[in-house]
């Protein structure tokens, strides 16, 4: 009975957020960042994040000016500097008769990204990270091959400014000519493409922004996503849960939510119980 009770407490602690604070603002593809752009912020080892983001139709990344998009994501920090991210992009609503039927698109754009922070932030230097997308997907839209740096500056006792700059490669290697019904070999069909040849694209060129965080619980964001200036805000609820919303190019609303916890830490009640006696 005692073992069952402790397992129950662990589960309740993870679900209700008793174990750890939330570590970072999450961007539209599920990485630490602002609204659309990623940052080089370091997440604590064992941090698991799940979330959702909405991309409006006029700024939809794949179904631009046709449908708005829903982006679902999960991420896990497996080592102190290595993060694995998986996201799924799907259109909202029904396809017009003139466009390609969504059935031919499968369940949506599935993508795996790796982020490695090879330089952590110091007094005079920013943290620097490399983000790479696995090339196995078919005509993926959220491909992120980028180098990004982030530096935090304390403006007051409760206000912190996080400055981020980066460069996204316009070129990507992926399987653009393969159809879902013919997707039997992930090692064929690779093509080097320039994202800028598309009507709309994600992170091709210089990007940057600033996150003004108030007491690590809410904040205001300004960013250049390599195409537009966006502004947004976010708030953290019940330690682990974040809500955010913003205006893309001062025109359409984007919003999202994420929930984070640390899988390596026990809830406080069990942590205190199992800590060595002094």
From TrEMBL:
The protein depicted here goes by the name: Exopolysaccharide biosynthesis protein YbjH
Give the InterPro entries listed for this entry: YbjH
Q: Which Pfam families match?
A: YjbH (PF06082)
Q: Which superkingdom does the taxonomy of this entry point to?
A: Bacteria
């Amino acid at each position: 009975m005692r073992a069952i009770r402790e397992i129950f407490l662990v589960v309740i602690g993870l679900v209700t957020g008793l174990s750890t604070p939330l570590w970072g603002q999450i961007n539209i593809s599920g990485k630490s960042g602002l609204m659309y752009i990623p940052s080089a912020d370091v997440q604590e080892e064992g941090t698991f994040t799940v979330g959702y983001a909405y991309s409006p139709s006029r700024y939809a990344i794949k179904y631009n000016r046709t449908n708005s998009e829903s982006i679902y994501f999960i991420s896990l920090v497996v080592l102190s500097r290595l993060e694995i991210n998986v996201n799924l992009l799907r259109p909202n609503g029904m396809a017009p008769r003139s466009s390609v039927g969504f059935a031919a698109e499968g369940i949506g754009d599935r993508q795996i990204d790796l982020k490695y922070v090879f330089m952590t932030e110091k007094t005079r230097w920013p943290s620097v990270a490399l983000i790479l997308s696995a090339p196995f997907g078919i005509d993926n839209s959220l491909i992120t091959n980028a180098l990004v740096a982030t530096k935090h500056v304390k403006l007051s006792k409760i206000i912190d400014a996080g400055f981020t700059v980066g460069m996204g490669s316009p070129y990507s290697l992926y399987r653009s000519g393969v159809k879902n019904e013919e997707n039997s070999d992930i090692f064929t069909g690779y093509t080097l493409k320039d994202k800028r040849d598309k009507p709309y694209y994600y992170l091709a060129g210089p990007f940057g922004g600033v996150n003004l965080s108030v007491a690590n619980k809410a904040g205001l964001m300004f960013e250049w996503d390599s195409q537009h200036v966006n502004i947004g805000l976010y708030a953290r609820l019940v330690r682990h849960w974040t809500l955010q919303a913003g205006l893309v190019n001062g025109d359409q609303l984007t919003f999202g939510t994420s929930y984070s916890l640390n899988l390596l830490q026990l809830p406080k009640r069990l942590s205190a119980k199992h800590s060595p006696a002094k």
